Amino acid sequence: MNTRAAWQRNLKIILALCLFMSVLSGCGAPSVKDTYPLESVNGSGNATSYVYRAADKTVPEVAKELANSRTPEQMSPESTERMFLVYSNEWYHLQQDPKKPSDTLIEVDTKQYVQQNYSSSFLQGYLVASLLDDLFDTMRGGSYRGYTSRDVYKPPAGQYHAPTKSEKKAIPPITVDRSGSVIRRGGTGSAVGSGGSIFDRGGGDQSSPSRGTINRNKGGSIFDSPRKSITKPKTRIGSGKISRRGRR
User: Fold this and answer.
1) Sequence spans of domains, the chain
2) pTM higher than 0.85, yes or no?
3) Cβ 51 vs Cβ 106: under 8 Å
4) Which N-terminal residues, if any, form the signal peptide (predicted)?
5) pLDDT value at residue 27
6) In whole angstroms, what separates CA 238 from the centre of its chain?
7) Which residue has the higher pLDDT, 34 or 173?
8) If we measure between CA atoms, which residue out of 163, 127, 209, 197 comes closest to residue 52?
9) What pLDDT band is residue 227 in, cutting at 50, 70 and 90?
10) How far is CA 123 from the centre of its chain?
11) 82-86 and 242-243: which strand pairing?
12) Which one of 147-161, 173-187, 221-235 scores highest in mean pLDDT?
């Protein structure tokens, strides 16, 4: 009975640890900016919009991925053209790229950006009215309908532009598909272990990479001093004295 009770107790502890680790993994799930490359930026202050590209992924695939990483407060019905994921301070507008239908554009807007730019009537086709009533209670909004239609429905906050160097530096490097290659936004990747290094910025001759070596001199020391011979002292049996070799 004692053995069975101990086994049941250990099983409960293991299950509790598994649950705890699953919660931690969910809390530490990667965000959009840590997973996809930044493509375009608009807005300033608290009203900002960032557009990322998910290559070779459909809108429902990206929506499911994001929802599994972080549960949204609201999510629009599944659609291959566009979907919305609403969080407390951010709105994710997923759109199929008209110029490259195999890709999904992830537009991450702050709540203030949505208030100032989006068309309330446009959002009514995707989200519940109560959410929109609270959002546009004191703001009239604009005629904006998303990044893919920015040329027709221009956002009042200004034009989108390619991210500057400072905007790229503000976002850390990303690893694509956990392949071990490190890619900086706007740059090219260098596969670790393929002749390059994550610390190598491509300034040297890749055909003959430099290697660090330690050269010993004739004395055999890395500090350029002759190596001294070290011998252990010996004790004369019965004399009670210690003497070194070479001395009497």
Assistant:
1) 32-163
2) no
3) yes
4) 1-28
5) 46
6) 73
7) 34
8) 163
9) low
10) 29
11) unpaired
12) 147-161
Amino acid at 166: S
Pairing between β-strand 38-44 and β-strand 90-96 as defined by DSSP bridges: unpaired
Among 98-102, 158-162, 201-205, 230-234, the least confident range:
201-205
The three state secondary structure string of the chain is: CHHHHHHHHHHHHHHHHHHHHHHHHHHCCCCHHHCCCEEEEEEECCEEEEEEEECCCCHHHHHHHHHHHCCCCEECCCCCCEEEEECCCEEEEEEECCCCCCCEEEEEEEHHHHHHHECHHHHCCCCCHHHHHHHCCCCCCCCECCHHHCCCCCCCCCCCECCCHHHHHCCCCEECCCCCEEECCCCCCEEECCCECCCCCCCCCCCCCCCCCCCCCCCCCCCCCCCCCCCCCEECCCCCCEECCCCC
Query: Does the pLDDT at position 50 exceed 80?
Result: yes
Mean pLDDT of 176-205: 41
| Closest by CA position to 96, among listed 107, 110, 87 | 107
| Residue 210 token pair | 């430099």
Residues 150 and 132: their CA atoms lie apart, in Å, by: 21
Task: Say how far apart CA 113 and CA 118 lie, in whole Å.
Answer: 8
**Which residues, in sequence order, are bridge partners of residue 190?**
182
What is the mean pLDDT of the segment spanning 140-165?
88
Q: What is the pLDDT of residues 66-102, one digit of tens each?
A: 999 999 999 999 999 999 999 988 999 999 999 999 9
Tokens of 166: 């400072």
